[in-house]
Structure formats: structure tokens, C-alpha cells
Amino acid sequence: MTVRLHNDGAEAAGETAAPPVLAAAGLRVAFPGRGGRGTARAVDGVDLEVGAGEIVALVGESGCGKSTLARALLGLVRPTEGRVLFSGEPLDYRGRALKRYRHRVQLVQQDPSGSLNPRHTVYEAVAEGLRIHEGATAEEERRVADALSRAGLRPPERFFTRYPHELSGGQRQRVVIAGALILDPEVIVADEPVASLDASVRGEILRLILDLRDELGLSALVVTHDLGLAWNIADRVAVMYLGRVVEVGTVEEVLSDPRHPYTRALLSVLPEADAGEPVVLAGEPPDPTRIPSGCRFHARCPVLASGEAEREGIADRCRTEDPGALPASGGDRAACHHARLHREAGAGE
């Protein structure tokens, strides 16, 4: 594994009795299927917590529901069931309350080229959120300058009149981050924050997110398909498959000792993982309008395909018995019959 960037002081965040700053409790989000056929269960019973000063990576393939979950946590999508909690209080979806919430929980979008208006200067782009939430203020210029400076664009005044096309990809992403920082949020939700950037710039943006956590006490949910990014930035990792979190734990637990076959498959393709031969998963993730019975991963599971589950006497359970949703923290780490069998066997030794 590569050397991790984050410092480990924030790992003590889980020791406090304070409620998590942001949480999903039994969250479900469903949409009508294509052409009105069935119901797509994009988020299907998720418990997830982000503690104060903690960075949580939400990892999974495209289409697994992680971006929908992030949008629900931001209040952009209303859940079908369950609740979003902020500092222990349920999210209020009424106009003024929701506006106050979005002041405190900010989105950092995936593609800075798409999220920045090409006709707006950097100053206008960063000031936009402030104007929406607080209106005209005599401190606008100072706060724009401060946000740009915190995002690593210094001296900030040099960027005020520049347009997105005049900036590098990394600079554009820093402008997007500055637009979130200007409201002094407590949490940022970063959706694939470095996916569109060159490898040479990715480390700089990840370092910036870590520095913001350390300097400002920010919490962050980082949505990514890249387990390597999770290793470098996260305190905890939640692995998502077909609408549900299937493994959760500290980054060391999940990436050094993965319990779920899906996590092991994702990890096996990382060149730095030293995890043996890459695991090639058969087929594509199932349609969320037709979630399989039993374990939702069973049709692609290498443990079942290899005959190991049959030899251990759990193959029928894998095909017919739902392992259920994972708790947000503590207790079970993986929603997997095979992992539970081995955990129980280890506990009995």
C-alpha cells in the first residue's frame, strides 16, 4: 500500500459521545424504473455516520447508488423511507430550514468545468453561494479572498477577474472548493473530487481536503469509485453495492483485511494493494428494479462461483437469505454470509 496522507489524530473522533455530525438512518430512495417499469431502489436501507472532524469514503462501482445517497444527505433528494440526521436532529425539509442546512453542509461537485459558469469570473463563482444564503454584505470581498486563500489560490486577488477557461483543472477544482468554504460549512460532501484531474494534481487536492479538516475541523464524505483514494484520505470506508452498504470500518480494517468478496475484488485491481491476481467480477451490477433474492451480490460472487460457499454449506443461504443492512458503526463489518461464518468460527477458537 502507498503511504497514507491523513494524520491519525482524527481517528479518536469515534471516542466522543457526541452524535455524528451527519448520518443516514434506515435511508431508502426509490425512483420509477425506466418506462415506468417497476421501482428502482437506488438506496435500499443505509445506515451511515460521519463524525465531527472525520473523513468517510463512500466507495463502489458506477450505478451502485452512492451519488444518490450523497444527494439525499445534502437534502437534494427526499428519502422514500428513513431519515437524514444533522448533529442528531432530523433534517427539516421546509424552505428556510433546508436553506440553513445547506449553509452548513456543502457540495463539492465532480466536474469543475461543468459546475463553473464559463461567463462568470472566479470572484462571481465564489461569491454566488454567499449572495444566495446571506444576500449583500459589506464583507463579501474579504470573504471571497479568504475562501480562495484557504483553497490554495494565493494571492487571491490575482484570481478575482479570471475566467474558468484561463485556469488549470486543479485551479478550477480549488475555485469550486472555495465556493463551498465561503459559507463556513461544518461538512462537505465531495462527489468524485479528483476524478477529472491529472494524476499529478490529485494528490494536491486530497492534501487540501485533509488540511481543511485539520485547520477548520471540517467533516467530509468523499464519494469515489477509487479505493486507492480512500486509502490516502479516509478515516473510515463504507463500500456500497446495489443500493446498500455491504462493508464498513476503519480504512485499515477494510483495506488491509477486507471481509466482503466485493471489497476484495475492488481492492485486487489496485497495483499497490499486493492482493494477488485481480478478481474479475462476472457481468454488470444487476438492475436496481430487479434486486436479486438472497445476497444481492450472489450472482457475481467469486466465493459462490468457486464452489467454496457450497463446500461450507452456505450456498443456499447466499442465494435465498438476505444478509440485511449493516449498522452504521460497531458490530458487524460485512453484510456477507461467508464473512459471518468465518467471524463466528474465529470467535469460537
Automatic annotation (TrEMBL):
GO biological process: peptide transport; transmembrane transport
Family to which the UniProt record says this protein belongs: Belongs to the ABC transporter superfamily.
Origin organism lineage: Bacteria, Bacillati, Actinomycetota, Actinomycetes, Streptosporangiales
Residue ranges occupied by any ABC transporter domain in the UniProt entry: 27-267
Keyword list, A-Z: ATP-binding, Nucleotide-binding, Transport
PROSITE patterns, per database record: ABC_TRANSPORTER_1, ABC_TRANSPORTER_2
Entry's Gene Ontology molecular function annotations: ATP binding; ATP hydrolysis activity
Organism this protein belongs to: Nocardiopsis composta
Record's protein name: Peptide/nickel transport system ATP-binding protein
PANTHER family: D,D-DIPEPTIDE TRANSPORT ATP-BINDING PROTEIN DDPF-RELATED, TRANSPORT ATP-BINDING PROTEIN
